[in-house]
Amino acid sequence: MSDAPPTSVLLPTVRWTDACGAVAAQLAPDDELLVIADTADDPVADRRGDTPENVRIVLAGEPDGCSGKANAIAAGMAAATHDRIVWTDDDFARPPDWLATLHADYDRQGPTTELPAFVGRDPLGVLLEPAYVVGGTIPVFLAGIPWGGAVIFERDDLDEAAFLADLRRTVSDDGTLGEHLDVTAVERTRIVPAGGSVRASLERYVRFVWIVRHHAPRAVVADVVLAVGLAALCLLAPLSTGAGVTLLSAATYAWAGLRRPSFLLAAPAVLATPPLLVYAFARRTFIWGGRRYRWAGKHDVRVDSE
Questions:
Q1: Burial letters for 11-44: b for 16+ Cβ neighbours within 10 Å, e otherwise?
Q2: What does the alpha-carbon distance between residue 182 and residue 157 come to, in Å, rounded to a whole number?
Q3: Is the pTM of this model over 0.70?
Q4: Is the torsion defined by CA of 224, 226, 232, 235 positive or negative?
Q5: Cβ contacts of residue 90 below 8 Å, gap of 6+?
Q6: How buried is residue 50: exposed, middle or buried, by Cβ count under 10 Å (0-12/13-18/19+)?
Q7: Phi/psi of residue 274, each to 5°?
Q8: Which candidate in 36, 133, 208, 245 could, as Cys together with 12 as Cys, close a disulfide (CB 3.0–4.6 Å)?
Q9: With bands split at pLDDT 50, 70 and 90, how would you rate the model's confidence at 300?
Q10: What is the rounded CA–CA span in Å between residue 70 and residue 36?
């Protein structure tokens, strides 16, 4: 850790969570943690002047033409003092050597991302778990797609001005980063609790579909064909197809280090995917973090209060 250059860690959140303290405890003397909120009305803003050493509260302001998350990251990049940058989120636990390990990854292979595994906290979220692992975690690993929860890079690794210009007019922070930065994924999974209510999980699903729609449109076609094909096979040959997708789900869970019985829901998840995709494509808005977004084009975003 002592050999790593001074680093700025960006953590968007509206309230102080365990993650803030966990990251602050891992900072070297010359590092900084920027906890990025929206406005002074957010609970975390009350901690200004009462934070651990090397921690600053940054107020990004209300987003205009982009998501609150993208706006927060853009503000954090502008406020960051150092050239080595780490992005992270407030919704998952990390070990005491998390930051040191990311530094070692960067020194070995350059820009690096860890892998998310989204686990449900409500019935729909649990049902969708196998789809998120097979269709989310594995593609992030194989394609080197940055995950904003744990990614490390340096400013010289990308055209920062062009990246920030795109970030301030879109929804997905990590989807946009992936278009400006080549990263290598490490085979290390972080478990991210997701949802909490059926509505929250449904809104998350819609948002994820729209991220792929705008940032990887060719993948959308392949995903739809695969989803419809697998669902049809599950109906025509339920025993063999159901057994096959369940075994695949079990293997991916084992690879990701997930010890949860929800892998058994792989076949029901396959059957649920086509109608969920129809619903997601039919939606014209979605809710994220208390705001409603109309994302008509990659760089055409309208923001409303929910």
A1: bbbbebbebbebbbebbbeebbbbbbbbeeebeb
A2: 8
A3: yes
A4: negative
A5: 11, 12, 13, 17, 19, 20
A6: exposed
A7: -55, -50
A8: 36
A9: very high
A10: 11
